[in-house]
Design goal:
Elements (H helix, E strand, L loop, with lengths): L2 H10 L3 H14 L8 E5 L4 H16 L5 E8 L4 H13 L4 E5 L2 H5 L6 H19 L4 E3 L4 H15 L8 E3 L7 E3 L7 H10 L24 H15 L3 H8 L10 E4 L2 E4 L7
Parallel strand pairs: 1-2, 1-4, 2-3, 4-6
Antiparallel strand pairs: 5-6, 7-8
Helix pairs in contact: 7-9
Amino acid sequence: MERYKEIERSIIKKFRKDIWSKFVKAVKEYELISENDKVMVCISGGKDSFLLAKCIEELQRHGDVFFDTYYVVMDPGYSEKTKELIQKNADILNLQVEIFSSDIFDIVDRVDRSPCYLCARMRRGCLYKKAQEMGCNKIALGHHFDDVIETTLLSMFYGAEVKTMMPKLHSDHFEGMELIRPLYLVKEQDIISWKNFNELTFINCACRFTENIEKLEDGTSKREEIKKLIDAMRKINKNVDYNIFKSLDNVNLDCILGFHKNHKKTSFLDEYDK
């Protein structure tokens, strides 16, 4: 059996419970892919986005919904070595990818504050624009379950706001375009296990600004701190990450001081004496 077929088989056999079933559940539960969709699958070069591509490819072949896919790598200014590794992995996984260039790294290099925020916004805009040019109505990103939990706690601890990473979003600036996250229910450790089982090596972080990311006193980034916190909490309660996730789907508005909806602030006092 060719190597890429063995890798594909591992997703639906060995990792059926932890990866494939959760991927399918997210697609169905959050209605991420519909009949006749044109989905641009965005590959960054990391383990998450490459797994996403293989899962979507499998769904397209054997699912009960017809949709088109396009596999795209945006090069924001990667080194030649990084680009070679991305192409090598695409070949190993038998993925036909289109690589297109942008000057995002060069632009962000001239910014003093919040380079990650600006880079993320610019990447998203470039991907939407590319998808629009290709006639797609959706872009798929490889964010997973742990990204959701970490983003939630980051918002609470450093943004004083309760919000999370959503499984899908309508674009504010590209009419008719939607962002989807099919790995929404898949845990990062299971993605790592799939990678190690198949002896795959992906890029971790090819960002040239990593050293300048805002750090805490011990030298770790805020996201790294949240990862460590969740890991420590799992030792006390193995279900803590799931409970955080579930709480976002189980908000009791009778016990909330206030919330925002459609840019309007609502306080519990508004209806307290009614």
